[in-house]
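Schema walk-through. Below, the input block comes first and the output block second. Nothing else is stored per chain. Lengths vary across the set, and this one has 251 residues.
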Amino acid sequence: MRDITVASYNMHKGIGRDRRRDPARTTRVIGELGADIVALQEADRRFGNRAGVLDLGRLRALTGLSPVPIEGRGRAHGWHGNLLLIREEGIEIEDVQQVDLPGLEPRGALMVTLRWHGHPLRVIGAHLGLLRASRLVQARVLDALLQEGDDIPTLLLGDFNEWRRARRSSLEPLALSRAGHDRLVASFPARYPLLPLDRILTCPAADILELTSHESPLARVASDHLPIRARVRLKRPDDTSASDSRRRGTG
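--- output ---
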């Protein structure tokens, strides 16, 4: 099956380490990723009319990526700042859900069900809270949402504001995290990345073949986070069934 390249980027409302808001610079960084799907966080201004930061027409022209349509956003481009970009060639959107996440501060997630060159795929872009207690509740909500869905390959991307591993992690309620299919790369702060705040998680029906932080000179200054990028291979249904059988001891 064809591999898909996905990325996650907290673009910090287009404000770089030089304290300048430069959406054109952010767009160039997104173009550098060469991804088929990009989950953006902080794509809108935080206060006032919460208007979107990017020039979506210019973004589409330079990168070939278009935003997943959402409802009731006003001048905002995303949902609680979350914006999913897709390369339209070969991708058919079937459903979009805008999810409110509980916590002290407003947070949300976008869940999109689509077909990637005919293969079903679910992608969730999320931005979790700064407080551990909020992240624990938000992880439980996301996990419950995933449990309700069909058994199709699922990718969860975003800024999770979590750097811990294993039992101390606030992501422990997430089955995708517990399954051990996530790898960690440092993405924050952009200048000297030390903490893996940004994550790409997969279910057993998808394998991460490569995962890296994107450390170009432009990316190091365009935001306080570096983007992260992964090459993912979706498994055929028979491959997933065989893998599940082996884990149950029946294969």
